[in-house]
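Example 3.2
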Amino acid sequence: MPGMEQHRRLLGEAIRAKRRKRRLSQERLAEKADLSTVFISRVERGKESPSVDSLVKIARALGVRVRDLVREL
């Protein structure tokens, strides 16, 4: 579905931007969120959709609210 791919891409871009703003590597974000580096990479590239639980973990690790990550969707 093209629309869903765009949502994944926008979410991934938002996560990447927040991660870079906080000067975190994908490895460090994965560690803080208790997720795999491969998973973080796939989410940032829009190749995978995180579950709600994973999205909450990512947001907490970044020190933001989930709504800050999904604002552009």
